Amino acid sequence: MNCNLVLIVLAACIGSIYCYPPTSDIQTSLHRFNNKTYYIETLAKADFYRSFMFCQKINMRLVTVDSNEEFEKLVELIKKSVSFTHGAEVWTSATDLSVEGSFLWMSTGLPMNVDKWLPKEPNNAANSEHCMAFRNEGDTIGFNDNKCWTENYFICESVPSQC
Ligand SMILES: [Ca+2]
Ligand SMILES: [Ca+2]
User: Fold this and answer.
1) pLDDT in tens, 93-124
2) Superfamily for 46-158?
3) Closest ligand to the CA of 97
4) Which InterPro entries does this chain map to (predicted)?
């Protein structure tokens, strides 16, 4: 290989590093319906707080569920994205950390306006369940309050700018 060829190959290699944007796993994992864009974490589980912070870090927010239709679509997304067997959970941003029994979406500060709680939930078991997740209860899927430090998959969302 002569020197010119070596230089061309070297330049091409450097160019490939600096001229092409890196492939973003997150960009290719986005799902859209209605006016929202969702990212569901499928590799690493995290507790509620780390899930919340991860979504902020990628300029999204931990998911809110604003309608029964959105609930059903998110259940579809969960089922096709992660292992969602009996007992599995996926974090949302709802929490009653501020006032026991009064769940708000931490991402927006707004109260919940959908009622998809599983039977007998929220039960605040051991007086220590303050974060809400989708849960597969076997014959039904709905919301459960669980301990915030439980490690689950989670969903981030983004909405169009209100500006
Ligand atoms: Ca609670
Ligand atoms: Ca519970």
Assistant:
1) 999 999 999 999 999 999 999 999 999 999 99
2) Mannose-Binding Protein A, subunit A (3.10.100.10)
3) 1
4) C-type_lectin-like, C-type_lectin-like/link_sf, CTDL_fold, DC-SIGN_domain-containing
Alpha-carbon distances, residue 91 vs 7, 103, 104, 146 (angstroms):
51, 14, 14, 10
| 3-state SS assignment for residue 14 | helix
Give me the residues near ligand 1 (ion), CB cutoff below 5 Å: 96, 124, 130
Nearest listed ligand to the Cα of residue 101: 1
Instruction: Please name which ligand lies nearest the alpha carbon of 145.
Output: 2
From ligand 1's centre to the CA of 158, what distance in Å?
26
What is the pTM for the complete model shown? 0.83
**What are 141's strand-pairing partners?**
136
Query: How far is CA 152 from its chain centroid?
Result: 10
